[in-house]
Design a protein that fits this description.
This protein has 16 helices and 19 strands. The chain is an alpha/beta fold. The protein folds into two domains: about 45 residues; about 525 residues, Metallo-dependent phosphatases (Purple Acid Phosphatase, chain A, domain 2). A seven-stranded mixed β-sheet has the order 3-19-18-17-4-5-6. Strands 9-10-12-14-16-15 form a six-stranded mixed β-sheet, covered by helices on one side. Helix 4 runs parallel beside helix 5 and helix 8 crosses helix 9. It is globular and about 75 Å long. The chain starts with 5 loop residues before the first helix and ends with a helix. About 5% of the residues have low confidence.
């Protein structure tokens, strides 16, 4: 498996440098030809910060039940043999070579907390059932996302092999409340653009600033209500700091790809969009009481049978007529609720680097309305992006038959081409049981068991990456001849606010390893009081760690769900993937990372 000739190496580095406007003398030393791709080049001069080095854990009690956070020891990769079902060769460490190093993000839940389209008072009814309607750190969600993007930028070289980040995938729930503004924030933060959180002007307008909303965490005066009783701290400057300045992001260092989540499909990932909800989102009145919120939402659904009633109700939403429990806010047309196809269309309004335009979605998707896609993450790894969301109702998912048959055909094609496959979806195998259908429809829906059986038929499907449950979890799915790994990452809204990097490695002994490494976002364990975006992200993590209704400790997963080496049999003779092809791939990926470093400095 010889590497590139010197002439080929010089030519490919020159082409890659020219394509990205780099000095070829900068690129060449970073991708010197490797006779053994397991040798890690000295590319960064520093170790990427990951949970291999440090974890963030609950610390001492600050007040009542409220606890601070602390830095804990790192966690090494734990080998898992559930799928391989044989002893791993201990000499694989000396032989391994990286096939692809990628980032996995999910459930970012970017939030415009001042939006009147939010339904936060629903937690008054049942905090555990409606916890996703309100979090004490909602205004800090964009800061958290920016800090997470920075963590991927920092970890742009693999801690295992030194390979550069070749791609990233986002498995849904990006815009929390179906807001066009939230959708743009998420895309811009991925792309490395700054965003302005002051969506209502220079003064924060929202339930956390209003004394009437005693049920909420009000950082200026948390006394009263569940959050005050729990011991949440008084932080009188927090809301002002949250909107004081634009939020900057370095952007992802590699091409990134996206799929739909239920929050990108339905309001709060559960409800269909009514004219009343559309009017509420762009209006100038925001609810702070349960009765007002329930009337606004349920009234909208009840009035769907009459166009006249709908029109009058929309006017009432816009003007706040006869609506006790509402307060004035500054209207913002950018808060409009986006339609299903608009989610795809907005991914075409993106920066050329890191790309790609569409982020997995293609012109065919826009023309046909199909919401699933195929993309080549590298010459040897293909992503199949699914839309598992049920657009009728409910948070959980299913796979319609037309998409299921497309997936079957794509897996068969990849098997015939000896191409490794990563399947991407929002829902995981524990939440793929939604059977909702519209009256009169007879759509064939496929659920978890059928999905697992299908993937087991095709050994090139080595992993299924997903999210939705906001926790770190890794499941082994096996057959008599092999199996695949299902890898679920946590979220950016609930503690531990972690995501992950994933690396596919050829052990050159007939087996593959998939390394999963958890990332904390790039902020300190103990938040400062500077009001900087990084300190606000750290504060968000501490607040999330105390949001008792969201089971914060459980969402970390077990050690077998975090930093792991997942072994499985190679689905074909990996000698077909030559060192020369991997060196050529690494030249392109390294050039992209260097271009990212240049953009970040500018």
């Amino acid at each position: 498996m010889g590497g590139l000739s010197r002439r080929a190496f010089l030519g490919r580095t020159a082409i890659a440098a020219l394509a990205l406007g780099l000095d070829v003398d900068l690129l060449r030393p970073r991708v010197a030809p490797l006779s053994d791709l397991s040798v890690r080049p000295n590319v960064t001069g520093a170790t990427a910060p990951t949970t291999l080095d440090q974890t963030i854990l609950h610390g001492p009690v600050l007040s009542r039940q409220y606890r601070t956070l602390r830095a804990g020891p790192g966690e090494p990769h734990i080998p898992r043999l559930d799928v391989l079902r044989a002893a791993a060769d201990p000499t694989r460490v000396q032989r391994r070579r990286s096939i692809l190093y990628l980032g996995h993000l999910s459930d970012l839940h970017v939030i415009d907390a001042q939006s009147p389209g939010r339904i936060e008072p629903m937690i008054e009814q049942d905090h555990a059932a409606w916890g996703s309607a309100f979090h004490p750190h909602d205004p800090l969600s964009p800061h958290t996302t920016a800090a997470m993007v920075r963590a991927f930028s920092d970890a742009r070289y693999s801690a295992v092999t030194g390979a550069p980040l070749g791609a990233a995938v986002v498995t849904g729930d990006s815009a929390d409340m179906h807001s066009h503004l939230e959708l743009r924030w998420y895309i811009d933060l991925m792309d490395g653009k700054s965003i302005d959180p002051a969506t209502s002007g220079s003064r924060y307008q929202g339930v956390q600033a209003w004394s009437e909303a005693e049920w909420a965490y009000r950082p200026g005066d948390p006394a009263g209500g569940s959050f005050g009783e729990y011991g949440f701290p008084r932080l009188p400057d927090l809301l002002a700091q949250a909107i004081a300045q634009p939020i900057t992001s370095p952007g992802l260092p590699s091409p990134w790809y996206a799929v739909y989540g239920n929050h990108d499909t339905l309001l709060l990932g559960t409800f269909g969009l009514t004219p009343q909800l559309h009017a509420l989102a762009v209006g100038a009145r925001k609810s702070y009481q349960l009765q007002a919120t329930a009337t606004a939402i349920l009234g909208g659904y009840a009035s769907q049978g009459s166009a006249l009633t709908q029109g009058l109700d929309m006017l009432g939403q816009a003007l706040g007529l006869g609506r006790p429990g509402f307060a004035d806010v500054t209207a913002n047309p950018e808060r409009r609720l986006f339609e299903n196809r608009e989610f795809m269309a907005e991914h075409f309004r993106t920066e050329p680097e890191p790309g790609p335009v569409g982020h997995g979605f293609t012109s065919r998707n826009l023309e046909t309305g199909e919401t699933w896609w195929r993309a080549e993450l590298s010459p040897h790894v293909r992503a199949l992006g699914l839309d598992t969301c049920n657009a009728v109702a409910g948070p959980d998912g299913a796979v319609p038959d037309d998409q299921f048959q497309w997936l079957r055909a794509e897996l068969a094609r990849a098997q015939s081409e000896n191409t490794l496959v990563l399947v991407l979806s929002h829902h995981n195998s524990l939440t793929l049981e939604n059977k909702a259908q519209r009256p009169g429809e007879d759509v064939v829906l496929h659920h978890a068991e059928e999905m697992i059986d299908l993937l087991l038929e095709y050994p090139v499907a080595i992993a299924w990456l997903n999210g939705h449950t906001h926790l770190n979890q890794i499941l082994a799915h096996t057959s008599p001849t092999g199996g695949f790994w299902e890898i679920t990452t946590a979220s950016c809204i609930d503690f531990p606010q972690q995501q992950q990097v994933v690396e596919i490695v050829d052990n050159r002994d007939g087996s593959l390893s998939i390394f999963t490494t958890v990332l904390d976002h790039a902020s300190p364990a103990v938040p400062g009081s500077s009001g900087s975006s990084i300190d606000l992200a750290a504060r968000a993590r501490e607040l999330a760690a105390n949001d008792w209704a969201e089971s914060p400790s459980m969402r970390r997963g077990s050690p077998l769900d975090r930093n792991t080496e997942l072994l499985l049999r190679a689905p074909f003779d990996l000698a077909a993937i030559t060192d020369a092809s991997l060196e050529a791939q690494r030249i392109v990926e390294t050039a992209r990372v260097l271009a990212h470093e240049r953009r970040s400095r500018s």
